[in-house]
Amino acid sequence: MAAAADAARIDDRFVRLAATVPLRVAPAALASLLDRGVPGWEQLSNVGGIRRYAVDLRLRLGKPGAALGTFKKAAFVDLGEVRGTGGAYQVEIQWRAATAAPLFPVFSGQLRIGPDDIGINGLYAPPGGVVGLVADRALLHVAATGTARWLLAELNRAAAHAR
Questions:
Q1: Average pLDDT of the chain?
Q2: Which is the most buried residue in 4, 83, 151, 158, by most CB within 10 A?
Q3: Which residue ranges make up each domain of the chain?
């Protein structure tokens, strides 16, 4: 009984993040790009099949073409090995802030490619305990989802230009 209560408490600290965008290239083309490395992203390491990149994650405020501004945050993005699953592909993905890390969440999940879209699904823990969870519900989850969509669009763009 105590173990179930502890598990519920742990789960209460995490927030699910899911985002998708339409895929602009064949799933195999994006999978191949991820196998080779993402152009324009500085690869820092490749250890045990996990590539670490230095990336400026971005959050655009406003609509495309009428953005009010774009926020950037230096981050480390880790991508695992690409695994094919019946015409689609999956890749482990994580990201964390490169600076002021305790103020930003760490995300861990799966990147799924194809057949019609590319998506991210995983968990992050907002910093700041209960206050962070309240802030996440009020506003920060919108920022996290926007950042995930930017990352997906960036991978789409890189694969489309690599053809």
A1: 83
A2: 151
A3: 15-162
